[in-house]
Amino acid sequence: MQKWVLSVFTVLSLVSLSSTGCTPPSKPNGFIDKGGHLVIDLDKLADKPTRVGDFKEGLAPVKFVGKWGCFNKSGDLAFTLSCNHISPFSEGLAAYSVGYGASAKWGYINKSGQTVIKPTFAAAKTFSEGLAPVKLAKEGKVPKDAALWIYIDKTGKQVFPDTYQEAQPFVQGLAVVKYEGHAGAINGSGNMVIPAKYDVVYNADSGHVVAAMG
């Protein structure tokens, strides 16, 4: 059984510290390997992408005019798809969206670009430990803070009866959620193992979860 240690702090403010490092260019010229060798030269492509994502599980999302797709590590297009966004792959699936603005709907594709979960959600996050948080599409007049997030499995089926105001992917057996205005965490069975009474909760590492009040 996974043991978790909860560290609780009362804080007046949370300060984000920036670190010095390289910022990826908005229009990269290609991909290099660990030896620094250019293995995919985007400048040599006849149809150069306008946006490129990071490689995850052997594929990198790329945007072209009017479509998206994914490069494999040889620089070949594994597939193209008429959509508005493709997120990086995780556990063999990637979230993608169709439509624009408030009408956009999200679903999931496999590594062949085939839809495995139809785009019916208002938002979709990464699969982790077999589950993914998705936001239900609003119907009619729904309060702004309504509990709209659920967790689904790889068939698109809702796995827990509860809904949440916010929901994050699972990390080491726990997922941070917002419920009735406060943050807590659930386990893989959907049980609230860290009560939703904090202002901030996030996963740390080595069995630690950090929670803050104030």
Written description of the protein model:
The protein has 214 residues and is mainly β. 0% of the residues lie in helices and 42% in strands. It has no helices and 20 strands. The chain has strands at 5-10, 30-32, 38-41, 51-52, 60-64, 67-71, 77-81, 85-86, 94-98, 105-109, 115-121, 123-124, 132-135, 149-152, 166-167, 174-179, 182-187, 192-198, 200-203, 208-213. It has a four-stranded antiparallel beta sheet, with no helix packed on it. A four-stranded antiparallel beta sheet has the order 8-9-10-11, with no helix packed on it. Strand 15 (166-167) and strand 16 form a beta hairpin. It is globular. The two termini are 32 Å apart. The model is unreliable at 10-20 (pLDDT under 50).
Indicate the structural class: mainly beta
Distance N to C terminus = 32 Å
Biggest sheet: strand arrangement: 4-5-6-7
The shape is globular
- Overall pLDDT confidence: 86
How large is the share of residues in beta strands? 35-45%
Helix content: under 10%
Q: What's the total helix number?
A: 0
How many individual β-strands?
A: 20
Largest sheet: 4 strands, antiparallel
Series of H and E elements: EEEEEEEEEEEEEEEEEEEE
Uncertain stretches of 5 or more adjacent residues: 10-20
Cα-based radius of gyration, to the nearest Å: 20 Å
